[in-house]
User: Fold this.
Amino acid sequence: MSVLDVQHVEKSFENVRAVKDLSFSVQEGQVFGLLGPNGAGKTTTIRMIMDIIRPDKGDITVFGKSNNFKVRDSIGYLPEERGLYKKMKVFDTILFFAEIKGIPPSKSSNLARMWLEKLELEEWQDKKVVDLSRGMQQKLQFICTIIHQPKLIILDEPFTGLDPVNTGLLKDVMLELKQQGTTIIFSTHLMEQVEKLCESICMINKGQNVLYGNLLQVKQKFGQNRIRLSFDGEAAFLKDTSIVEKYDNYGQYVELTPANGKNSQEILKIAAEQVTVSEFKIAEPSLNEIFIKTVKGEVAS
Assistant:
């Protein structure tokens, strides 16, 4: 079942076309990645889904219905810009957002305590929002986003301000919600998190869909032409463009792309003649590499 359908949507601001003929669908229970560089049109698209702004052309349906206030009550939206009241206490903030969504205080109090404990904020419940760190504020805003138990959650840069521990905590909560049947759309620049969490993606560049589909199929489309190599010694062959098209040095290892006409066995033979090889692995391209190639226009959409 399709939870969200975006069909041939366009949006302009004065002379700038922010979104151009954009189409994608999100299936029920998916974690879906909405990706793209800064200024690509992601936030504009999310705001149209939320009916904050209206598209100039095209249709957006949520749960098979056109956008309206009742439909929006089934969505939890975490914007990139925080929308918290700085002088309000943490616990009262959650109750306030719960009340907006129609949850009675008798129920919202228990939900608030449960989520504060789950996201390790219970010791801060009587503090003002302004007293929280950036990461704590992000976790609080996440709680306010999901307090009404929405069927669809839209998260715009949800890991902003979070350290690795709290990023992992939020990731676990997202997966727990997914297991409960919640559909999650999230936009982020952290490609590693997309690879870990998303089943499908839509990559936008200059307002247009440039890459869309199941993540595994997308990665297969780009082939397995990357080699991961760990070694000791001076690898002069890496700078020979007749052997290696390009490489990225990560200190402990390099990832390289063979030049046209060179296969992995030839690379291994040449490497073994110059250095002591401790690891040689053929790897699928990372989503980060796919992202860069696609945005730069090095591949067809």
The chain has a mean pLDDT of 90. The first helix runs from residue 42 to 49. The first strand starts at residue 2 and ends at 13. The chain is about 35% helix and 30% strand.
